[in-house]
Amino acid sequence: MNNRFEGKVALVVGGANADESRLLGFAGLSSLKIARDGGKVVIGDIDDEAGERSVAKMKEAGLTADYVHLDVTSETDWLAAVDTTVAFHGRLDIMIMAAGIPDRGATIESTEVDEWRRVMDVTNMGMFLGTRAVVGPMRKSGGGSVVLISSMMAKVVRDQANAYATSRAGMTHFARSAAVQYGADNIRVNTVLPGWTLTPFTSSMFNDEWSERLSQRVPLGRVADASDIAGPILFLASDEAKYVTGTELLADGGVVGWIGSLD
Question: Fewer beta carbons under 10 A from the terminal one: N or C of the chain?
Fold first, then answer.
């Protein structure tokens, strides 16, 4: 353990899968690493069973962690989660927003309005409500770091998945806007853009055949695991990135930069 998060309090949203006896998500792994590096963590999620289980495991290991139910589309839930975090620990320094849902891969014409709205609400309304909720306590703490988890799909598109790609692109521009607005408060806002990553969120589609096909499209030759994405998240959350704001950190194994084989 090192102490790079000593004295820091983090609200990690979408981080329920932090139980090492199961497949870890990158937000869950980020929660674990912040706590192991001296920080105090509050996990917010809608998966109460996984969240409570993860926090219980972390407490058994001597880490400081708590869980709050948080639907990112609810302003009431955001305010309650932030109030709970500050009540428990007296401050808030870091917010990692990793909540998101996919669309069903439909064309623009066949995408239902309710589906489009649902994806936008979770991703874009969630980041808006979350950032708005945390900046006040961060300002009182002397600054902070907001890390929004976007996707490499903010940079490239495939035939369908229109709502998902559009919502993730919106995150990156929102982060730039918020970074400019809150720079004077020493509040940094950045995005991480993961590539194909094996997580609880994607495990149902990442069978061996599909993973092999994707790996052939990645210059680094493999799909990511949780640690490949948690590293960039933790860098931006930490004081190591104290002069980094309004930026996009691609963690895609080189996919976006490669046109692909022409053979």
Answer: C
As for how many domains the chain has, the answer is 1
Answer yes or no: is 36 within a domain: yes
Q: With respect to residue 131, please indicate whether it lies within any of the assigned structural domains.
A: yes
pLDDT tens-digit readout, 180-198: 999 999 999 999 999 999 8
Question: Cα separations (Å) of 122 from 50, 69, 93, 129, 225?
Answer: 19, 15, 23, 10, 23
What is the value of pTM for the model shown? 0.95
Q: How far is CA 92 from CA 8, 82, 179, in A?
A: 7, 8, 17
Domain coverage including residue 112: 9-250
Share of the chain above pLDDT 70, in %: 99
Taking all residues of the chain, what is their mean pLDDT, rounded to a whole number?
Answer: 93
CATH at residue 221: 3.40.50.720
Q: Which residues are catalytic?
A: 164
Do residues 232 and 96 lie in contact, with contact meaning Cβ atoms separated by under 8 Å? no
**Closest to 99 (Cα-Cα) out of 19, 17, 36:** 17
